[in-house]
Amino acid sequence: MDQIKPFENSIFDERNLERATTSQRFANYIVDIIVFYALIFAFGIIVGIFSPQLIYDIGYWADKNVFLDRILSLLLFGIYMGITEMLLNGRTIGKFVTGTKSVTEEGDQIDKGTLFKRGMIKAVPFCAFSALGASCYPWQDKWTNTMVIDLKKSTL
């Protein structure tokens, strides 16, 4: 009878996960904000072409309810980020630019629900400030047990 040698059938996981730097995370944020507002602007132009009165009404409402306008903008940004990360498997346009990706703390692919949750957490007021500091560990990472890695320096 053949004896199985120890570790003969084991698969060694030799992952090397290098966290994205604070500057990479900041660049992700800036690119994603620019893309988000460009999409909102393009949507506004399209709506303005087909329904100019609606644009006027939205502008009037936004001027009267600045606080509500800011909350709605944060919510739309969270939805946009969640859907983008879901569709692009842990990446956003900013993450493509900087060569980074969201993964679990073990380095595995994140499930769609958690990716959407990460995006929605970004709608929490002052969430962007949670990324500041020497070690970049913002709320969307902390609250979902995920991290953003530098794909060029990591081995998955």
Task: Briefly say what this structure is.
The protein is mostly helical and about 160 residues long. Helices cover about 55% and strands about 5% of the residues. About 20% of the residues are buried.
Descriptive tags:
single chain, 156 residues, mainly alpha, 6 helices, 54% helix
Q: Helix count, per DSSP?
A: 6
The chain-level structural class is mainly alpha
Unreliable runs, pLDDT <50, ≥5 residues? none
Series of H and E elements: HHHHEHHE
Helix share of residues?
40-55%
How many runs of DSSP E, i.e. beta strands?
2
Shape: elongated
Average of the residue pLDDT scores:
87
Biggest sheet strand line-up: 1-2
| C-alpha end-to-end distance | 37 Å
Strand content: 5-15%
Radius of gyration (Å)? 20 Å
Largest sheet: 2 strands, antiparallel
List the helices and strands and how they pair.
Elements: H1 22-50, H2 52-64, H3 66-87, H4 93-98, E1 100-104, H5 112-121, H6 139-142, E2 146-150
Antiparallel strand pairs: 1-2
Helix pairs in contact: 1-2, 3-5
